[in-house]
Design goal:
Two copies of one chain form a homodimer. Chain A is mainly alpha-helical. Chain A is 72% helix and 1% strand. Chain A has a single domain, classed as Farnesyl Diphosphate Synthase, CATH 1.10.600. In chain A, strands 1-2 form a two-stranded antiparallel sheet. In chain A, strand 1 and strand 2 form a beta hairpin. In chain A, helix 3 packs across helix 7, helix 10 packs across helix 11 and helix 11 runs parallel beside helix 16. At the A-B interface, helix 3, helix 7, helix 8, helix 9 and helix 10 of A face helix 3, helix 7, helix 8, helix 9 and helix 10 of B.
Amino acid sequence: MPRTATQTRSTMPLTDHRDFDAALRFTAESVERAMYRLLPVSKEPEARLFEAMRYSSLGGGKRLRAFFALAGSTLFGVSGLAAARVAAAIEFVHAYSLIHDDLPAMDDDDLRRGRPSCHKQFDEATAILAGDGLQALAFEILAQPDTHGDPAVRAQLVLGLAQAIGAHGMVGGQMLDIEGEGQALSIGEITRLQRLKTGALISFSCQAGAILGKASEQARHALAAYAHAVGLAFQIVDDLLDVEGTQAELGKTPGKDVARGKATFVTLLGLDHARDQASLLADQACEALDSFGPRADLLRQAARFVVARRA
Amino acid sequence: MPRTATQTRSTMPLTDHRDFDAALRFTAESVERAMYRLLPVSKEPEARLFEAMRYSSLGGGKRLRAFFALAGSTLFGVSGLAAARVAAAIEFVHAYSLIHDDLPAMDDDDLRRGRPSCHKQFDEATAILAGDGLQALAFEILAQPDTHGDPAVRAQLVLGLAQAIGAHGMVGGQMLDIEGEGQALSIGEITRLQRLKTGALISFSCQAGAILGKASEQARHALAAYAHAVGLAFQIVDDLLDVEGTQAELGKTPGKDVARGKATFVTLLGLDHARDQASLLADQACEALDSFGPRADLLRQAARFVVARRA
């Protein structure tokens, strides 16, 4: 039975592995398998839509959000299957956001994960619809009984994801990002922008395991604090990489923020201060996990990874 | 308390009114009030996003899908508040689909409900994000405890909507619609296309009350059969209006299907046969409701309205 196999394989390394890179790779493969199952090839006349959805969501990416969801789930004894389904839903949403973000009317990026972006590989209409379909797919997965036997948990997952990615979350942040081009944003404004644009979904990813495991409010708050710090660190490093990274490393076009006159943490803080700030946030993220003891070491390593990454 | 007021007002006319037009208007006002509450003006920096979401979802439309949800709810003693929230979620989704459908890369329509379409009034990026935000808002509303005290009902609503509007439903139908331009589709192909593109959401609208009221499988099947016939009749009449209607009546550009070389029920069946077919489907829709007796008269009138409408 493939489900049982996934369950066993996806939980093991998160508690046994010492090597974070291996754990990250392992998680990525585990969630990718779940995504393949949840988004199979279509033989219907609208197969092109499914091709585009698969093209942009499968076969690539660090799967960091999935990692947060899976690593968080191990803290609360959540089944690997349930965690992998939620992680897959999160990655489908992330893929949708990248597809729409890359559209000519938005960031107009031809390259994503080292390949043509969705609207270049297919066309704009297909890309818009693929993103729309991936969003719906994520909610469908969360609402299905396979995700959790308790419908209250499923409803809470749906609510959490919807709030994280809606107009008060990710979509609102993307609106701010577009409007902010050429504007002199303050550090407070850009922090809020990023908290919405990338922080909200990362925060949901970190808390998903606590929802699945019906954890205490205290545990959720600890994970929310971790997520807040990690999310901000993640964005600062994104801004650093946009300046320092190469196209080969990033798999996308570097230097775009500067070219578009976007205020970033780097333009506001400078390279050195931004790097220090990211490290400080990683420290804060780790401290937020104190109550979990060594069980949360993988999440601590993830916080370090976020700051040290080169892509 | 405004909620109790809505509850009383929105259920009364559906059981008391004889005048269908008045009931439809009343329902539209009732769901519109719910939508105003659920999507308030924003004072945040991303206010423009909320403006666009409100612009495209509030203050217009027949609210036929909302009517189906509210009229269906009265069959099962569902509270007016719950029904209005679900109806609002459905109308937010419908608005999102129109925004994305009107985009230059899709149907490229400058006019919607007699006003500039969202990307003309704002811009393409804002329109894409407004649609994305409206989809998330719909799921957020369904998952909130206010919609129903039983989380199993909420999860079922989310699942039903997600399936209706995802790649196996509305979005898949839109993909077929775009790919179908200039293609010689058969009557079977176009029926399937429309079942996905418009039928699936109409079907969910008709069944929403049964989900809220925890109705029997038999009752849900009856409503699904009604919805299937009404949805197809609705689309045939849409095709008729695209040929026969005026811009003033429709509030959108007529004649677009023909100009784009789209196969429609009218191009395949001819005007007279298409009109007959729509009437026949309305008859079938009414028959599907036999087990409900006169309690379902408003839904029967709705089937007649769908065929007789001029916009």
